[in-house]
Amino acid sequence: MEHLRGTLAFVAAAKHGSFTQAARTLDLSPQAVAASIARLESALEVRLFNRTTRSIALTEEGAAFLSRAEIGLAALEDAAQSVRDKEKSPAGLVRVTCGSAFGRRYLMPMLAGLYKRYPQIRLDLSFDDRKVDLVRDGYDVAIRGGAIADSSLITRRICALSGVMVASPAYLKKRGIPKTPDELAAHHIIMLRFASGLSVPWTLKLKGKLTTFDAAAPSLTLSDTEAVGDAAVAGLGISRVSLHFAWPHLQAGRLKVVLNNYNDPGTREMVIHYPHREHVAPRIRSFVEFALETLQNDPTLQSSTKSLTPFCA
Hints:
- This protein is an alpha/beta fold.
- Helix content is 40%, strand content 22%.
- Helix 1 (2-16) packs across helix 2, helix 1 crosses helix 3 and helix 5 (100-117) crosses helix 10.
């Protein structure tokens, strides 16, 4: 509880740039705010603010802690708000933007359950892969791989977006199994292309260091992530896809993992973005919580690269 008091005081002071203003917001004395923050710093064993007699400024550690603290406090407020809203029936339109492949594969199947629970919610779904600005483009929720750099948004994790190199058993029987990254030059390579026209390089681990592989002359280049995986299933070559796409094909024997010892799965995540708590309507909160409940419990999305050994060629 003491950590919570200190965190509330810290966030208020950082927001207002003053212990005095933070004290007014929290209905405390400036001395109480300062003491609470001092106890938090002592517990964390870092200095969060540089102080002078007239001003305070976040330290590097303070800035890092602030971003995490705001997310944590927002999640706490979300939990409280969800209890307050439980007896209400959310209603109205929720505008959602989502990557096209992820939307078709994972959002569409969950809609029947959403409408059953919240019959008065209406949805406007846009499936595309362009960069968006929620406010400018008029969206309530964005589901994207990676983070949108906007401090006015809450970001919550759905799953990891681990990459894996795959090919069909038929292709590998015909062309052979590559044992090292150098052998990729002798294979048909299927690459993904960004909307900008640039291809998406593969991240590999060589001698303990990360490097990238970008085929000079790929056999096939596609602008759709799902099509890249479909091409591998069809036996057209080796591609790098998200594990959640590959997982059902691996289990069914339609794909095999190649060069797993050299593969770096990356740190990208699929996340859901929505406005900060004071701007979240019940209809938006209900959609977000239902989506997280559904997607975070989908075994395909929660599969791990640690379980790939049985599927390696």
